[in-house]
Amino acid sequence: MSAAVETGWIGRSLERREDARLLTGRGEYLADVRVSDCLHVCFVRSSHAHARIKDIRLDAALEIPGVVGAITGAELSREIQGQKIPVLIPAFPAKYRQYWPLAVDEVYWHGEPLAAIVAKDKYVAEDAAAAVEIDYEPLPVVTDAEVALREDSPRVYDDWDSNEIFGTSYTGGFEADQIAKNDAEVEALFAQADVVLRQRFRTQRCGVCPIETRGALAIWSETDGLTVHLTTQRPHIERLALADLLELSTAEVRVVAPRDQGGGFGVKAPFYREHVVVCHLARKLGRPVRWIETREEHLMTVSQERDQIHDLEIAADREGRILALRNRGIGDVGDGRQGVYWGFVMPSLGSVMLPNAYGIRHADIKLRCAVTNKACMSPSRSFGALPTRFALERGLDMLARKLGLETAALKRRNLVTEFPFISVTGVHHDSGNYVKAWDKLVESVDLPGFRALQEEARASGRYIGIGFACGAEFSGIPSDVLVPLENQPGYGVVTMRIDPRGKIAIHEGDAPQGQSHETTMAQVAADAFGIHPDDVSVRHGDTGTTPLSSGTIGARGASYTVAAIAEAAAALKAKMARYMIHDHGLEGATADDFSFRGGAVIYEKDGNIRREFAALADRIVMGSINLPAGEDPGLEHTAYFEAPKPMICFTAQAAKVEVDIETGQFTILDYATCEDVGTVINPIVVEGQVQGGVVQGMSNAMFEEFLYDENGQQLTADFENYRLASAADVPNVTVGHSPTPCPDHPLGVRAVGEGRPGPVPGALANAICDALAPFGVESTTLPLKPEMILALIEAGRAGNGG
Amino acid sequence: MARPTARKELIGQSSDPRVPVSMTVNGERVEREVSPRMLLSDFIRHELRLTGTHVGCEHGVCGCCTVIIDGKAGRSCLAFAVQADGADIRTIESVAAPDGSLHPVQQAFRECHGLQCGYCTPGFVMSIVDYLEDNPDPDLSEDAIREVLSGNLCRCTGYKNIVAAFRRSAELMRGSR
Ligand code: FES
Ligand code: FES
After folding, report:
1. Residues A547 and A618 in one domain
2. Which residues, in sequence order, are bridge partners of residue A72?
3. Number of structural domains found in chain A
4. Eight-state DSSP code of residue B24
5. Chain A interface, mutation test: which of B9, B103, B119, B161, most A Cβ atoms within 10 Å?
6. Range(s) for CATH 1.10.150.120 in chain B?
7. CATH of the domain at A659
8. Nearest to A241 by CA among A112, A357, A340
9. Is residue A672 located within the same domain as residue A730?
10. Nearest residue on chain A to B64, judged by CA atoms?
11. Which of residues 474-533 of A touch B (CB under 8 A)?
12. How high is the pLDDT of residue B5?
């Protein structure tokens, strides 16, 4: 026990516990796990976007020395269950298609795995994969969701009546007549409106690929069954799914998410086909089997999100007050066969989140999702909401220009001001002061000063502009939302254990990938018990030792898991207080009469009655005689936290850019945010989350785009063609704060993990269009490539008569 | 499962030829026999079990695999181990002092929160160590630093804190001269 320790650990920029190992090359990532006698898997992937598999010949591959075996989809489909199992299916209607992890008769996208080779090392496995001979019979390809939704489109799945995998209305109610009534009301508001904006917005296929790719290392033991180390954000869900698919008892499956994972951002949240193949092969061969994804495989198959089209209409009055909103969205979900999300859950949530942050009372929002011959959409940070955010934030700027209003003022006028607020799509906005945060942001960028500067600059032929956007995204996801959405619980849970030396161990079933849990969660527990964070350890990701939870997704760490820590600490403190009352004969005292500080438990009414924290822990854990009546020995507690309704975290963002009108190139001069994150546990960690999220949004908006040709060939499967922003491409981001503690969280925290990239493309595009207002430029598509901007300038010039 | 036939004795044995390589890694001489196509990154990670050097792309873009080869930062995924025969190589494992105290660059990353998941970090640290050894008085303007860092990708931090860590590294190293 550390003597005379400080208290007040919450709110400090403590250096991170993780860093000592990560900085010295002692991280424990998946590819670093070493087991002897391990074999390597390489997947054979389809070279066609849609084709019948006529024949697969493995002979030449098997001839290569070092090859141990090979398996095809046909064989695998006889040995394991198909992937359409309840634990991997959301609880609402859609076309969930049965599939096996290796294609059986037909391939549906360029890159779909259809066989797996096991060999002594990856070099041999790759040689053998290249030697597999496959005869394909090409079938018609559809790569455009709008085309796919037409009656006469070729079908991705020939036994489906259409390519629509999912479609719904998010407004009006669940019954057709309720929806029709709502639509008519919205139409009436449009008919009366002073002004109506109608515009199509399109966001390109891109995502947040982590720098560490995916991987799995499976070990089979006759006595213990399967142990698999996996890159995953949700180890417990993987475990349930693997048991079902491999027809094992859950007692025989242990999933370990490595202590260190090289980023996830949603990409490591789905249940991927490769995992189960690796596990099955380990069982079949009775030897450890490993697969480490190559970057090419990664970019061909995952990290692809954002592929949406939105036909947005806004009806407003002369002052820019939004009267009603209408949106028809289209999601291009790729093949739509991927556990947990099936490609369409992201665009679906994007439509739900569309009106967030603004006090919009009337809307008609519908979405249709189509399967295409592309990789299945998989989630990325700002889950589904980046495209709708782009559409709305751009649309409101266009509306402001139409009305001759300052966009910052128009947006402010429409922000939610009364809480709790339930959006037209049912999103519960718990609390906050969005206007205050907005004003703080607008003040920080000196809008009047910038307008003056802009005038001067224009006079000298320079084009600078400012753009605003905001976002209100989930701070954790309650069961209320997560059970219907993903068929999984939303609660936060930890098991907290105090040992006889007063050291605390926290076990969490989630699996972070850089979010600093070991540091911030230790701060929270240390703060509660008045001990030093070094006396708290945080362990996560191993289903053998942690309570079941749905994973590190949706900004659940600081919101739900931290709340569970606070509740576990409160329960254990109350128990320790009861022992104090009993041992010291303090009849009538309650838990509130004790404070935990400086490594001691102190009776506030008489400071002489105190125990060292460790001594009291030892008494309760080891000295299990003379117990208080009805009390158990031991200091262990599992706490579940559930917020009644979603908690929301607000961000307001502003970009300043300069555009070169000869080249269409733009430079970000400045980027500022104002965040309402409630109580801050570790300021430097929170700021890091915001900066990283914003730059992901910039990189998406400026550079990243997965391209397929008309035959569905993936053209961007390396970092040269799928380009990420480097340090030289982006500016410093200035992070401001306007906190309002969250009333539904025991510590008032709002989590920032999810939402930061979402508003960025809108803010940037708005700034560019503001700079180019003299040319009447309105950009409506991403990415913001110089060629596209130049074309808009030229079109504007032509429209202005040169 | 389809298995190789009639060559049971070969199962699990690659027929790749083996060639001897020797080099100095982190001050120690190492000698191995490896396949001529083994990447230097794999040699470091698998043969030498120095897993601090990471692989993010294996095609020379991300910079995760950066090590210092004969005094120059280079990408170990772009070289074969045999090409490094006779070379002197430094990896992330050699950067902290033998007593475990952090190098100024590592210290700066820690102070400035220049890492989140840490996967890109060894590559950044090696690039910066190399750069500051060669340029003890670097240009510390924002643009100049960002240019120096542009050969390494980070997906988590947004770079701001890595820029700060570069500045702080230069300061600490100057202080320790
Ligand atoms: S792994 Fe070598 S540059 Fe990416
Ligand atoms: S810290 Fe995660 S990629 Fe840089």
Report:
1. yes
2. A115
3. 3
4. E
5. B119
6. 104-175
7. 3.30.365.10
8. A340
9. yes
10. A211
11. 513-516
12. 72
Residue A771: exposure state from Cβ atoms within 10 A (0-12, 13-18, ≥19): buried
Same domain, A721 and A629: no
Nearest to B117 among A62, A120, A513 (CB): A513
Residue A92 has pLDDT above 90, yes or no: no
Q: CA B149, CA B62: separation in Å to the nearest integer?
A: 11
> Which chain B residues are Cβ-neighbours of A213 within 8 angstroms?
56
**Integer Cα distance of A654 and A442 in angstroms:** 8
The Cα B128–Cα B112 span in angstroms is 15
DSSP state of A16: P
Tell me whether residues A123 and B37 touch, CB distance under 8 A: yes
Q: Is A121 on the interface with B (CB under 8 A)?
A: yes
Q: Tell me the shortest Cα–Cα distance from A20 to chain B, in angstroms.
A: 8
What confidence score (pLDDT) does residue B9 get? 45
Beta partners for A507? A495, A539
Backbone angles phi, psi at B87, to 5 degrees: -80, 165
Ligand 1 cavity residues, CB under 6 Å: B 55-58, 60-65, 75, 77
Name the domain boundary from A641, A674, A693. Answer: A641
Is residue B11 less than 8 Å (CB to CB) from chain A?
A: yes
Rounded Cα distance, A602 and A585, in Å: 14
Is the pLDDT reported for residue A184 higher than 90? yes
- B95 close to A (CB below 8 A): yes
User: Per-residue pLDDT tens for A550-561?
Assistant: 998 888 889 999
CA torsion sign, A16 to A20 to A24 to A25? negative
Say what the pLDDT of residue A118 is.
98
pLDDT at position A553: 87
pLDDT digits (tens, 9 = 90+) for A138-179: 999 999 999 999 999 999 999 999 999 999 999 999 999 999
Q: Could you give the residue range(s) of every CATH 3.10.20.30 domain in chain B? A: 17-94
> Which pLDDT band holds residue A2 (cuts at 50, 70, 90)?
very low
Say what the ipTM of the complex is. 0.96
> What is the predicted pLDDT for the residue at A3?
42
Tally the residues of chain A: 802
- The topology (CATH level 3) of B17-94 is Ubiquitin-like (UB roll) (3.10.20)
Residue of B nearest to A31 (CA): B51
Domain B104-175 has CATH 2.40.40.10: no
What residues does A168 pair with on adjacent strands? A367
pLDDT of residue A755: 85
Kindly give the number of the ligand 1 atom that is closest to the alpha carbon of B76: 2
Please check whether residues A617 and A718 belong to one and the same domain: no
Q: Are residues A615 and A663 in the same domain?
A: no
- What's the pLDDT tens digit per position in A577-599? 999 999 999 999 999 999 999 99
CB contact under 8 Å between A23 and B158, yes or no, is no
What secondary structure does DSSP assign to A429-495, as a single string?
E----HHHHHHHHHHHTTHHHHHHHHHHHHHTT-EEEEEEEEEEEESS--HHHHHHHHSS---EEEE
Which of A31, A66, A213 minimises the CB distance to B14? A66
Q: Which domain holds residue A559?
A: 19-28+491-641
Is there a single domain that holds both residue A440 and residue A529? no
Could you tell me if A517 and A474 lie in one domain?
A: no
H-type alpha helices, A81-199 = 122-131, 145-148, 176-192
**pTM of structure:** 0.97
pLDDT at A697: 98
Answer yes or no: is A307 within a domain.
no
Taking all residues of chain A, what is their mean pLDDT, rounded to a whole number? 96
pLDDT of residue B7: 53
Does the pLDDT at position A1 exceed 90?
Answer: no
Q: Contact A263/A514 with Cβ under 8 angstroms?
A: yes
Q: What is the 3-state secondary structure (H, E, C) of A51-106?
A: EEEEEEECHHHHHCCCEEEEEEHHHHHHHCCCCCCHHHCCCCCCCCCCCCCCCCCE
Q: Do B2 and A724 touch (CB under 8 A)?
A: no
